[in-house]
Design a protein that fits this description.
About 25% of the residues lie in helices and about 35% in strands. It has about 130 residues and is an alpha+beta fold. It is elongated.
């Protein structure tokens, strides 16, 4: 890994994915799962769990960038706007720092919705294999 190295990846936030994440997390908040309830909220329709984006980010880190064997040491995400169920999102990752003494890398993360709006941003520190 080198400072400045980038990776871009896309994902679709399907209703099935949101339901599966609710099962795994135990978060059955109706704002994510009940279209009728979600219409009564300021968002007007169901939104994905914020940490679903974080979980997808974890999958990217551990299998594709940096890749297999990567271990997350620290992750921070600031959620800027909702991701709606049915939207496609884009992850933009950039290596910010590589420790010279250990295989530890800091990666800046940005997540955008299908309109190109920033939905979340943060930083992940990983140990590479």
């Amino acid at each position: 890994m080198e400072v400045g190295q980038t990776h871009v990846e896309h994902a679709e936030i399907t209703p099935e994915l949101v339901r599966e994440f609710a099962k795994v997390s135990g978060d059955y908040n109706p704002i994510h799962l009940d279209e009728e309830f979600a219409r009564t909220t300021p968002f007007g329709r169901p939104i994905a769990h914020g940490l679903l984006s974080g979980a997808l980010l974890s999958g990217i880190m551990g299998t594709r960038f940096p890749g297999r064997g990567t271990v997350l040491l620290e992750t921070s995400l600031l959620f800027k706007r909702p991701v709606f169920v049915g939207e496609k999102i884009e992850f933009r990752l950039r290596v910010e720092h590589v420790r010279p003494d250990k295989p530890i890398v800091t990666i800046a993360c940005q997540i955008f919705n299908s309109q190109g709006e920033l939905t979340a941003e943060g930083e992940t520190v990983v140990k590479t294999s």
